[in-house]
Design brief:
heterodimer, A: 117 residues, mainly alpha, Arc Repressor Mutant, subunit A, two-stranded antiparallel sheet, 65% helix, B: 196 residues, three-stranded antiparallel β-sheet, 58% helix
Chain lengths: 117, 196
């Protein structure tokens, strides 16, 4: 795995659960539908990581609610939606992410400006 | 069912995931992979690098769902070293305890016997503190006392408990255990275990 891809994977690993909760807030979704929603925002699941173990953890931790229903013309699927606890965890996680992103930006931002100049 | 999903099912069965849950996970996975394939997406886009290792993928999914115990982390070297040090210290303590017990036996438990004779009638026998004089007829068949006037056996400091064998046994156990622990702990032994 290339260095850039590895770093991107590691960065994603820390926030992928938040991304899943965020796309669930838009509406209940089954596994591949969440992958599709993430991909439409430029976030593809490649490298080390898969949404399925994460969905399992979110379910175990009570952050999502699930039910089975028929998909559009396909077999019954397991739909996930964020529970109240999941929404609270998402709000807290987004705050943490923004604080971390701002701090990193404060360090890396000037470096990028110098490179561009 | 795809080969990937079949591999996952075998792994879940091996791990003891209940069949209804394994069936549900397999059906969801199969449907997602079929849908992705229909859209021209690769399995890697759905599964990440798990697409190349179905067993690890299946185990991780089951563990995260809490259906099986996650694999135990390998004990780190530091706790193992401290455990070995504790075992060595325990054996050393046993050996020291054995020495103390044996020493107590030597100093307090041994019967000290001396034949004493006044030499001539009318002279006394000097008895050390803590000892007593047993007249010769009471000594028994194993000690023969010359039939001199005023002769006897001076006996002192006897103990009813035999500590010495216990002490020697403790010393043996302690020393053998200590040596075995140190041999196990030795760098060359650890290297041999790793290479084996």
């Amino acid at each position: 795995m290339a260095t850039g891809e590895r770093r991107r994977t590691e960065l994603l690993r820390g926030v992928l659960d938040l991304c899943l909760l965020a796309v669930m807030v838009e509406g209940p979704a089954y596994g591949y539908e969440m992958t599709r929603r993430l991909r439409s925002r430029g976030l593809s699941i490649v490298g080390e990581g898969s949404i399925y173990p994460l969905l399992g953890r979110l379910e175990r931790d009570g952050l999502v609610e699930t039910y089975r229903a028929a998909s559009n013309g396909g077999p019954p699927r397991k739909y996930y939606s964020a529970s109240d606890a999941g929404r609270r965890a998402l709000a807290a996680g987004v705050s943490e992410w923004q604080a971390a992103r701002d701090a990193v930006d404060a360090v890396l931002g000037p470096v990028e400006a110098e490179v561009e100049a | 069912m795809s080969e990937f999903v079949e591999e996952c099912r075998r792994e879940w069965k091996r791990l003891g995931v209940p069949d209804p849950l394994a069936n549900e996970m397999a059906a969801d996975l199969e449907a997602d992979l079929e849908e992705a394939a229909a859209e021209g997406a690769s399995a890697e886009e759905v599964l990440g690098s798990g697409a190349f290792d179905p067993r690890s993928f299946a185990a991780a999914w089951a563990a995260e769902r809490g259906l099986v115990q996650p694999p135990r982390p390998t004990p780190t070297a530091a706790p193992r070293r401290s455990r070995l040090a504790a075992v060595a210290a325990a054996f050393a303590l046993i050996a020291i305890l054995g020495l103390v017990v044996a020493s107590v036996d030597v100093h307090a438990g041994t019967v000290k016997v001396a034949v004493a004779s006044a030499g001539r009638p009318g002279f006394g026998v000097v008895i050390p503190p803590g000892a007593r004089l047993i007249p010769s007829p009471a000594v028994g068949p194993r000690i023969r006392v010359l039939p001199a006037p005023g002769a006897g056996v001076v006996v002192g400091g006897s103990s009813r408990l035999e500590f010495r064998p216990v002490g020697v046994l403790l010393v043996l156990v302690g020393v053998v255990g200590l040596v075995a622990t140190l041999l196990y702990w030795a760098p060359w032994a650890r290297m041999r275990r790793r290479s084996g």
